[in-house]
Each structure stands twice: as structure tokens, then as C-alpha cells.
Amino acid sequence: MDSIMRLKTLFICACMLFVTGCKTQSFTMTKELSALKTGYEIDRNTTATYQETIAFYKELAAQLASIQIKPFGMTDSGFPLHEIVLSQDGDFDPKSLKESGKLILFLNNAIHPGEPCGVDASMMLARDLFLEENLSALLENTVVVIVPFYNIGGGLNRGGYSRANQDGPEQYGFRGNARNLDLNRDFIKCDSENAVSFNMLFNKWQPDIFIDNHTSNGADYQYSMTLIATQKDKLQKDISNYMVEQMLPDLYKKMEQKNWEMTPYVYAQETPDDGIMGFLDLPRYSSGYAALHNAISFMPETHMLKPYENRVESTYAFMLSMLEHIAVHAETILDVRKRGIENIKAQTEMPIQWELDKTQVDSLLFKGYEAKYKKSLVTGLDRLYYDQSAPWEKEINFLDTYKVSKKVVKPKAYVFPIAYKGVAERLEMNGVQVDRLDSEMVSEFEMYYIDDFETVKNAYEGHYLHYNVSLKTVNKSWKYKQGDYIVYTGQAADRYIVECLEPQAADSYFAWNFFDGILNQKEYFSSYVFEEIAAELLEKDPALKKEFEQKKKEDQAFAENGRAQLSFLYQRSPHYEQTHRLYPVARIVK
Ligand SMILES: [Zn+2]
Q1: CA 23 from chain center: how many Å?
Q2: Inter-CA distances, 86 with 104, 109, 316, 396, Å
Q3: Is 0.85 surpassed by the pTM of this model?
Q4: Does the N-terminal or the C-terminal CB of the chain have fewer CB atoms within 10 Å?
Q5: In angstroms, how far is the first alpha carbon of the chain from the final one?
Q6: d(Cα 69, Cα 149) in Å, to the nearest integer?
């Protein structure tokens, strides 16, 4: 069905609503609500446009005092982000809701608008929670916050071709946003206005559980739904244990009972037969970002080759299963998170890098299709295909353990100059308390020199990302001015603070180029002028002379390179700038 027809149908349905002028608080089935259908319900190979999505929620909110829809911040498309809150008692204030013991479930949709199952599933779920009597109990101790359509710019760029390997819907949005950024890489650097608004909305609610709905690429297998849960070894231990031991088994069971048996996300080297690995969800990704805020997070990834209908229904089933789990365990989850956050605040060391532990191999019962090879009609070479007439079920290897490969001592505080306003803004958007020095601070700090690093060759999401960063740690007497920023640790957001400010963390602000100014030397010397000064330096400093002579003896290339020798002495002279490669964020460790 074309979009104008669908929009008309939506509004015809909406017009059938009996508008009384006052919203109903009742959760009994109403004819009016049941008349409100999504385009998907009319044509199963259809997903709602951005405008249809907002119109649907506005119609719902007009009928129900328990639903609020409000614009929240801007996006790169020029259209605002929207915040939808489902709160049974009509309270939409995060503070009072949390005080009354409500658990916050946060749903995000259309971060990749070509993977829109969550858009349609969330609309239906929001309605059904009020329409169907047996579901209304699920909101007794839970408040649901929905981002109905995150990547609006991508959503407006609609077509039917960009997901070449996907079975429907007929028309859908594009992955890149209005600036062609992948928003599922933008949670830390926040280049897009979308991410800025999202960071603020997420931290307004500080959700206990977060779901970001997707569709996968990759191998073929029998499941419609696959699941990325927060990498268990990256989540705070108490919270992770709850997720692994209580929540995940129950979600898998509930999905099977609903006939949507699911599997961990199929992250395979070749085909699933060879085993699958856990996904390291770095903070640039939604679930990795949420982990920095100690939220239990999920990226459900429906399978691209299953009909759109299966993908929407299994996404709906997953969110419903989550609500059912929460309804029984909300109190425990709130307790576990509270304890986990207190432990994070008190932790003296923080991990900043992880790597797959190949010695920890679990086994997983998996339902696949036989991977076979035949001659390609295109290339004449052997090509892979999955034979759907040859399904199999067997145990495969599952490598899902990541070990900490680098950790740091958590400092008492980080201090950095007022010049790095963008860094302070991002910290504040994330609920970090950022203070200002009320007078000059001269002290001995622990500081880093950036010793070495590598940089990606091609632009990646608007940046030239640094990696493999090595540091030289020095204790240095340094001065910060009145008004400079100081961030004390011991906050609920300690993980966010540490993983953003420690330059060796994969998604640190340093990695994302916020400090690139320090990487270039600003002043140099002319060899012919510096000759005399260098000679004088050697004469005045016997230790330096000894080091210099030693290096000449040991390093032939150095001995034959006059400029290198002068540079060696220049770097050890007062003329050399101390700020070259000096990371300006100091650590107060004592
Ligand atoms: Zn995706």
C-alpha cells in the first residue's frame, strides 16, 4: 500500500475514535482504542513513516492520560526527537517515579531506519498495554519510555533498495542520518544533534533496562530473533550476574513459549557451524553506552531473511517478554542495580580494555541450515549458500567471555582546562557532576604524555579514530586556572567518566579526536642557530653530555644524523614545549 493510502487509513481509524474531551484513566478494552491500527496491521509488509509514527502516538496520548508524547531536543534533520512515556498513574516525572519505586524500561527505535521492526512493534505494544486487560498489569511497577523514531533524517530518506539482502518491508528509511552518520557509532562523540538529545533523554531517565531494536545481516539460520545482551564481562558484576543467571534464561524461555525461540546474536567468523562469539559492545554502540550507565541493555537483532511480519512480531514478543519478566522481578532488579552502582562508586580500579578469552569455550544448542558450496552463475567460482531444505540442530562453540586487558587506578578527580568545553558538555549531558575551580590550582598531578598511537587511514564516522595508544605517565607540577573543570569520581557515572577520559579506552574522547591539538609541536628551531645553544647545553650539563655520547655510540643512524642530534638536545632544553603530546586532563590520585 502506498504511503498516502496508509496515512489515510490511519486517520480514518483515528477519526473513528469517540473523543469525549477528557482522557480516560481506565484500562478496560475500549472500542475507540481498538480502532486505532498501525499501517503494519493493515498491510504486513509496511512500516510507518516518521510522520505516521508521531501521529499514532499523538492519537494514543489524546485518548489516554497514561501516555505522554513530547518533543525532546533536536535532530540533524530539523525535526525534534520525541519522548513518549507510558505511566499508569499519569506521573511523568522521573524523580517522583523513581522515588515511588518504579522501574524504568527505555525503548529505542529506528536508529537504523532500514531495520524498523521496533517502530511498528512499539506502537502496537504501547496501545495494547492499555487496550488489553491482561497486559495492563505489566505497567504496575514499570514505566516505559519510548524513542519512537531516533534517526529521523534516515527515516525521511525512504526507499526500497538500500537493504539489498532484506525481506521487506516494501519501503523503509536509510541507515545514515541527515549528515550520513551511523547513529549507532555516535553515542560518545555525539557529532549529531540526535545523539546530543539522546544522551540528555537517556540521562533524564537513567533507565534500569534499555532495548535498542535492530535487524541483523550475516549468515542464514532458523531463528527470527537473535539477541545481543550487554557483554557480560563489561557490565558491573552484581548487575551482570543478575542478567546472566536470572534474566537471560527467563527471556529465552518466554520467547520459546511464544513460539519465537531466539539465539544469541550470530557473530560468526565463517558460518555458524564454526561457532559464534560474543559481541564486544564498545561505548560507541547503544548497549555499550548504556553499560557505562549500569543499565542492563539489549540489541534484539531480527533476521533479515525472515518476512517483515516475523520480525515485527518477534520484536513485539521480546519487549512483551521483558515486561513480563520485570513485572515479577522489578524489586530485585532495582536492588541489584542500586548495589551495583554503589560498588562502582567505591571501586578503586576500573577496567578500560577487554579482549576475547579464547580459552573459555561454552557450547550452545543451535538450529542452523547446512552451509554448502556450488558454482556461482556470476563468477564461475565456488559460492556459499545455506540449504534451507537441510536444517540442522547441534551443539556449536560459543565464545562469550572477555577478559580485562587493561585497567587503571581510579583517580580521586580529573582536572582539565576550560578550553575543552565540548568535553565538559558531554560529561554533563551524561549526568556527571562537573565542577569549576574557584581559584588557581598549582599542584603535582599524575599526567600522561601520549607516547605512541595509531590512526585509522580513512575517515570513520566523521573522525580519524586513534587506537593502540601508549602513554608515559609522569608526576608533574602543573597549574590549572580558576574556572577550569574538575570532575570528582565516586559518582554513579564513574564508568562513563573513566572510559571517556582515559586515553587508552577504545572510545575515549582522545580516541575520537577531542584532544588532537596536543599532537602537533607548535614551535621548532633552525639548526644553524641552535648549534651554539646546543654546544652550551652540553658544556653546562655533564649528565646530558653523557647520555648524548652514549646514544651516539649505540645508535649509528643517530650518530650520522646531525638534525636528529640537535633535536635530541632541543627536546631536553627549556626551549622545547612541555605541552607537546601532554594530555591536558590531569589525574589527582592522592
Ligand atoms: Zn542495526
Answers
A1: 36
A2: 10, 16, 16, 41
A3: yes
A4: C
A5: 66
A6: 12
| Ligand 1 centroid distance, CA of 231 (Å) | 17
Across the strands, what pairs with 442? Answer: 479
- Ligand 1 centre to CA of 115 (Å) is 6
The string of DSSP codes covering 407-449 is EEEPPSEEEE-TT-HHHHHHHHHTT---EE-SS-EEEEEEEEE
Structure letter (DSSP) for residue 268: B
Alpha helices by DSSP H, 84-219: 94-99, 117-131, 133-136, 152-156, 193-205
User: Which cell goes with 310?
Assistant: 516475523
pLDDT (mean) for 4-22 = 40
Q: CA–CA separation, 524 vs 430, rounded Å? A: 40
Grid coordinates given for 140:
504496575
CA-based torsion, 427, 428, 431, 433: positive or negative: positive
Q: pLDDT tens digits for 515-561?
A: 999 999 999 999 999 999 999 999 999 999 999 999 999 999 999 99
Smallest Cα–Cα separation from 471: which of 505, 516, 438? 505
Rounded to the nearest angstrom, the distance between the alpha carbon of 392 and the centre of ligand 1 is 27
How many residues in the chain? 590
Q: What's the Cα-to-Cα distance from 458 to each of 327, 449, 461, 466, 519, rounded to whole Å? A: 47, 25, 10, 11, 18
For ligand 1, the distance from its centroid to the CA atom of residue 284, given in whole angstroms, is 13
Q: What pLDDT sits at residue 16?
A: 37
Summarize the confidence of residues 107-122 as an average pLDDT. 98
Nearest to 491 by CA among 434, 447, 436: 434
pLDDT digits (tens, 9 = 90+) for 46-69: 999 999 999 999 999 999 999 999
Calculate how far, in angstroms, residue 585's C-alpha sits from the geometric centre of ligand 1: 34
Could you tell me the CA-to-CA distances from 433 to 337, 428, 481, 491 in Å, in that order?
20, 6, 19, 8
Q: How far is the CA of 32 from the centre of ligand 1 (A)?
A: 34
In sign, the C-alpha dihedral spanning 544, 549, 551, 552 is: positive
Q: How far is CA 513 from the centre of its chain?
A: 18
Instruction: Give the Cα separation of 262 and 252 in Å (integer).
Output: 6
Residue 294 CA to residue 133 CA, distance in Å, equals 33
Does domain 23-31+48-346 sit in CATH 3.40.630.10? yes
For residue 286, how far is its CA from the centre of ligand 1 (angstroms)? 10
Which band of pLDDT confidence, cut at 50, 70 and 90, is reported for residue 11? very low
Distance 530 CA to ligand 1 centre (A): 57
Domain boundaries, the chain: 23-31+48-346, 410-521+580-588, 527-571
The position carrying cell 551443539 is 395
Going from the Cα of 167 to the center of ligand 1, the distance in angstroms, rounded, reads 15
Q: How far is the CA of 207 from the centre of ligand 1 (A)?
A: 21
How far apart are the C-alpha atoms of 575 and 566, rounded to whole Å? 12
* Separation between Cα atoms, residue 498 and residue 504, nearest integer Å: 10
